[in-house]
Amino acid sequence: MPEQLKASEVDSKTDPTVAKQFDTETPLSEQIQEFYKTVDGMKVGLLTTIRPSVGPVSRSMAVSKRNGPGFLFIANAHSQKFDDLKNDKTAQVTFQNSSSQDWVSVTGKATTVANDDPRIKELYSPPLKAWFGDLGDGIHTGTAEDPRMSLIEVKADFITYWKSSVSSIGFVKEVAVGAMTGKVANTGVTRQFQSKELEQMRKDDA
């Protein structure tokens, strides 16, 4: 149910929605498992890179594989995002479920890997050819052997995610009651993983 805004939250310049929904009760192991379940249900996200003289640039990307808190993407080495990452390794991957409103934000560093990485053959699937095309020269074939076929690997430095704790109807009700009463809607929980938690997640996934 919506909660009353406190004067102390205003005086301390606290965002009441963030403060009231930040999860300090759920065990870390459960938070991690719910993160994996949430993000694995969202196969396509926005990959954001930093472009010189422009700033953040995002594009929709299908996740090829999740390794613990990290993400792999098959991508065309000729695309401009590879130039972005040569200049600045900073990357962000974001996901949102439009039905539940659950969202995930992963910030970290990205490395690019050329076509000789054996993981490309492991992750390749025939529909990828539709995004690369076949030049007909026996080289640029849109297959796993195509030299354009490359990997982007994002290693997380910080993860935050929000998970709904109410139904779609409950969400609308929370917002409506909050708007009418001046109370703060309480629709879900916000969780964060920083360096300590991320290292543990990588060890557990190894």
Main sheet, how many strands, which sense, barrel? 8 strands, antiparallel
Strand content: 25-35%
The helix content, as a percent range, equals 25-40%
Q: What is the string of SSEs from the N terminus onward? A: HHHEEEEHEEHHEHEH
Gap between N and C termini: 40 Å
Please identify the structural class as seen in this structure: alpha+beta
Tell me the total number of β-strands: 8
Number of helices: 8
Give the overall form: elongated
**Uncertain ranges:** none
Mean pLDDT: 92
* Rounded Rg: 20 Å
Describe this protein with a few key phrases.
8-stranded antiparallel sheet, elongated, 8 helices, alpha+beta
In words, what does this structure look like?
- Strands 1, 2, 3, 4, 5, 6, 7 and 8 form an eight-stranded antiparallel sheet that branches.
- 32% of the residues lie in helices and 32% in strands.
- With 206 residues, the protein is an alpha+beta fold.
- The mean pLDDT is 92.
- The chain contains eight helices and eight strands; from the N terminus they run H-H-H-E-E-E-E-H-E-E-H-H-E-H-E-H.
- The longest helix is centred in the C-terminal third of the chain and has 14 residues, at 168-181.
- It is elongated.
- A hairpin with a 2-residue loop joins strand 3 (65-67) and strand 4 (70-76).
